[in-house]
Write a structure and sequence with these properties.
Length: about 130
């Protein structure tokens, strides 16, 4: 195993404004970031969430901790700046972690949030949840 360095993993999910849906989608996003990057929670330094102004049913950091995740990790949440035409009902995440310096980070976009990163997905969207698309 080579030398470790600090990486920033990005991701996002789109969800409905309910405590249950936010909780479910935040945990799915977090778990997949760890899985796709072969990370243990001990390798995570911090998790930063941003939420669009239309999501106020539950704080995503609270949702994550309620499910027993990131208990010893610094979490921070803020409200996403609004811009005309921005997608609605989006939770973004920026996770700082240590990984082997030779690794390529895997970023995760779910539930209609792939529209945020057409550079990753070639303009394709997540067909599993078309009802969530903006």
């Amino acid at each position: 195993m080579g030398e470790k360095r600090l990486f920033a993993l990005r991701g996002a999910t789109q969800c409905f404004n309910s405590r249950e849906d936010i909780q479910k989608k935040v945990v799915e996003l977090y778990d997949e970031l760890l899985s796709e990057n072969n990370l243990a929670e001990e390798e995570i330094v911090s998790v930063f969430f941003s939420v669009t102004q239309d999501l106020d049913a539950v704080n995503p950091a609270t949702a994550l901790r309620k499910e027993g995740r990131a208990e010893k990790t610094a979490l921070f949440v803020n409200q996403e700046a609004y811009f005309t035409g921005s997608p609605e009902r989006i939770i973004r995440v920026l996770t700082h972690c240590y990984m082997d310096s030779s690794r390529t980070p895997a970023h995760v976009y779910h539930n209609g949030a792939k529209v945020l990163r057409s550079d990753f997905y070639g303009g394709q969207h997540d067909n599993r949840h078309d009802d969530l698309l903006c």
